[in-house]
Amino acid sequence: MRVAVLSPELELTLEDRDRPDPGPDDVLVRMRSIGICGSDVHYYEHGRIGDYVVDSPLILGHESAGEVVAVGENVDDGRVGERVTLEPGVPCRRCEHCARGEYNLCADVTFMATPPDDGAFAEYVAWPADFAYTLPDNVSMDEGALVEPLSVGIHVARRADIDVGDSVLVTGSGPIGLLVMEAVRAAGATDVIVSDVVPEKLALAEERGADLTVDVTEHDLQTAVTEATDGRGVDVVVEASGAPPAVQGAFDAVQRGGSVVLVGLAPDGEVPLDTNEIIDNELDVFGSFRYRNTYPAALDLLADGAVDVEGIIDFDAAIDDVDAAFQRAQEPETVKGMIRLDSE
Ligand SMILES: NC(=O)c1ccc[n+]([C@@H]2O[C@H](COP(=O)([O-])OP(=O)(O)OC[C@H]3O[C@@H](n4cnc5c(N)ncnc54)[C@H](O)[C@@H]3O)[C@@H](O)[C@H]2O)c1
Ligand SMILES: C[C@@H](O)[C@H](N)C(=O)O
């Protein structure tokens, strides 16, 4: 089978590998749609994210959907032919966090496309059957692949405890910010403001229903938010850019007693903050790391038409053109590229 492999020298090429055999508890999936995530692009450009270093060949990709073509001996063979999306992080299932259901905090997780664990840019992937979720008939393969970043948004909405009628500022209109917007609206938020530094990204946020967009290269964010909220500030800020000025600005845009959720990863993780401001205004500050127990909810939202994920895709490519697709994904205006294995 063909796989797209990133070498330690940062060359992304197609290789022939043996098709994997499913383990006893696995399904074997023929891949159909695989999204290109910002972290894939980061490995492609820099060869590392923090302590995770591409020091041996790595198959990228963790936003995936496909069709079950075989199952292991402990899996119901009625699953052959099912259309599925794969949840890319499989935890140890034994530690304290797994026992509590907070499996996104498991330190012994296998996460696709995170060194040394291979990902999904492959014609076939063998994966634990209970982390392969059946797609409803009206949910497409592309939507199935985008359940992964939508899950990031759903986890944010849950962390923030979004309530009906909440106002939310989302800083960053990349795939995560845009899908946070979908998730918080599905959870009941009624006023969503989105900020970014790239006009095309803001135009997309506006097209997708943002109540207000703010280009922070031209306008002061705090002033814009103050005017839009009759001087109160928003109930919740979700920081989804990782840009240090946006992290700092989040604390000025939220109302007293409000919440700030940090999901964007700052380049070195160190951002000076006014902690007295957090205390004086009694702010709740949450980190949001990946997701847990979100795939069933994401699939229900998609089946009900309660969220739109396909509208963030701006191009697709065949796996043979994976390197060109990654180059295009690097352009600042690009939101989401999708590799489709059935489009060849
Ligand atoms: N915590 C998690 O579980 C998790 C999961 C996925 C991604 N992430 C992180 O979330 C962030 C967003 O991911 P993405 O894939 O959407 O990334 P992205 O790079 O595609 O989007 C970030 C957006 O922020 C914008 N931006 C830059 N500076 C800004 C500023 N000062 N104010 C407002 N916007 C600004 C960029 O123009 C871009 O549109 C990244 O830092 C990523 O690493 C975290
Ligand atoms: C959660 C996932 O989308 C993210 N890129 C990560 O590796 O953590």
UniProtKB/TrEMBL annotation:
Cofactor(s) listed: Zn(2+)
GO molecular function: amino acid binding; L-threonine 3-dehydrogenase activity; NAD+ binding; zinc ion binding
Pfam assignment, any one: ADH_N
Annotated signal sequence range: none
EC nos: 1.1.1.103
Record keywords: Metal-binding, NAD, Oxidoreductase, Zinc
GO BP annotations listed: protein homotetramerization; threonine metabolic process
Record field: catalytic activity: L-threonine + NAD(+) = (2S)-2-amino-3-oxobutanoate + NADH + H(+)
InterPro entries linked: ADH-like_C, ADH-like_N, ADH_Zn_CS, ER, GroES-like_sf, NAD(P)-bd_dom_sf, SDH-like
Annotated ranges, domain Enoyl reductase (ER): 9-339
Classification via SUPFAM superfamilies: GroES-like (SSF50129), NAD(P)-binding Rossmann-fold domains (SSF51735)
Pathway named in the protein's UniProt entry: Amino-acid degradation; L-threonine degradation via oxydo-reductase pathway; glycine from L-threonine: step 1/2
Family: Belongs to the zinc-containing alcohol dehydrogenase family.
Name listed for the protein in its UniProt record: L-threonine 3-dehydrogenase
Organism: Halogranum rubrum
